[in-house]
Amino acid sequence: MLIFHVTLIPNIAHANTPGFTGSATYTPDPTANDVWSGGKLSLKNEFKVKKVDIQDGELLNKVTKFKIVWKLPPNLTQADITTALSEDSYVLVGTQKGMLKPENFTTTAAGDLEYVLSDKTFNLLALIAWLLTLLLNPDVTIQTNIELDVAKLPGSVNDYSPNRVLTKGKLPPRDTKTMAFTTEFINVKDVSKGDFTSNLATWNTYLSPWNQVVADSTLNGKNDITPLEVNGISRVLQGTNYKTRNVQLPIKQNIDISTYQRTVNLFSKTAILGTNNGLVQNRAPVVEDKITELANGKKQLIRQSTYNLFGTDGTGTTLSPVPLVFKQETLLDFKLADTQLKIPAGKETKLKGLLESEGTDNKFYYKINGGAAKDLTAIKLDGQNYEFTLPGFSAGTYTVVIGVSNEYKLGKEVGMNVVAQQEELKISSITDTLDFGTHEIPKPGDIFYSETPFLVKVLDTQLTLNKWKVALALESAFQTVDGSYLPADVFLAKNGQKQQLTNSLIDVYENTQVNNKVVDTIAFKEHEGIHIQMKSSNVLLNREYKGTLKVVLKKGP
């Protein structure tokens, strides 16, 4: 337990009375982190006097009386004493003990605290009986103990802070840092028998965190609405009172606590900045991180760093610790441009997203169907825009989560549905036989259409636009089995135009859209589209002429 104790230091200008002793002792509250807060203040005195100093008169008309007067330091009043007086206070005359209560004290014309022996504190009959047992004029020892509950003290009149938060419930400060208690004994005849002065060390300076640039800002500073805390300075840091100061800083700004160190003399209203005042601060701050999700879905970190400033003033007197709280906030938001994807199976997929983050170490990852997280390659495009590359998926349906986290422990995940589809482009069906019918000997110019439909179907399940074409060529001309050629040309009639089919490919269909289905590229009914036109009547009767059409699917423009 830490005890402040000053033993009977004689006042240089005042000699203590022989036989009188005393002490002023301050014992801080062991549960408090402030050596000046709460605890007990004990004022003890002992007076060695004669019996005649407290009892006078004839045997049958004796008067028993004495007074004790406490001349208090300016920073402690009679009202303070009676307000904070504890039930352990007492006066002891020889073996007779009386407990002191607030009503046992009065105030002298000079404003001093006075106690007069009375039946309110003593059983006077018992005291008189005890005095009768003594010799004619022996020494009598009188002891007093005034014990104060410091937590009940109202605070210093020099404290302009709201509700006197700087000094309330603390050992009273003094400009000289010394509290002098002079206790005087006055005998039964109202004659002073002398006094004794005890001195107790106290404080006059307190910690008041401050930074001029920060205090001058709109965000973190305000006008001092009390009588000025420091002469010539009208701006203070934000906070509800002198003991709670709050500063808001960007999350990326480092906190230099040394730039906020300041001590203030409560009485002179002067301040000392920096470390020249003896201040020591070597404890790490208490950092609390609170992460929440806002209504708009953004993740928010509120970081509160509490620095408990403590140390000593320039002359080594312990300073009351004061917290300085720094608040830093940052947001993270992450969105994907598309959360419903159809992608080609087996191919890498490019995604685009938007990231709002003050972090410099943003890490992206992905998870497939609730599996383990895997690193995701990300390229920053511009501003908050990013591009990601997902690896190829086998054909199927997947639930994919794209996530990001930064060095501030903020993170967000966005879910997406992915369908990986196997892409195909092929001729799925084609009419295998075109029948141009049985005819009599033709005349030049006769036209014969196919008596069967001509269909060419293409399966196109590509998910992105890829142009392709269908082309036809006459791979072999009409001829009999023994090699006699039909004197005719083969034509394709479409959209009012007529093209002759030769052994060179001609484009008959061009795809310019995404299909994801079977496409009817050629769909001629009977008696339309493909036909032959006779050039001569020189044909063989009762013979079958056959030819071959070539159908080609071409990729690309």
Structure explained in plain terms:
The chain has 557 residues and is mostly beta strands. It has 4 domains: 4-203, Immunoglobulin-like (Sandwich); 206-331, no CATH class; 337-421, Immunoglobulin-like (Sandwich); 425-555, Immunoglobulin-like (Sandwich), CATH 2.60.40. The protein has 3 helices and 41 strands. The strands form 9 sheets. Strands 15, 16, 17, 20, 21, 22, 23, 25, 28 and 29 form a 10-stranded mixed β-sheet that branches. Strand 9 and strand 10 (113-116) form a beta hairpin. The longest helix has 9 residues, at 124-132. It is rod-shaped and about 180 Å long. The model is unreliable at 1-13 (pLDDT under 50).
Compact overview of the structure:
The chain is mostly beta strands.
Instruction: Please indicate the count of domains.
Output: 4
Task: Give the DSSP E fraction (strand runs of 2 or more residues).
Answer: over 45%
Query: Which topology of the largest domain does CATH recognise?
Result: Immunoglobulin-like
* Helix fraction bin: under 10%
CATH architecture classification of the largest domain = Sandwich
State the name of the first-level CATH class of the largest domain. Answer: Mainly Beta
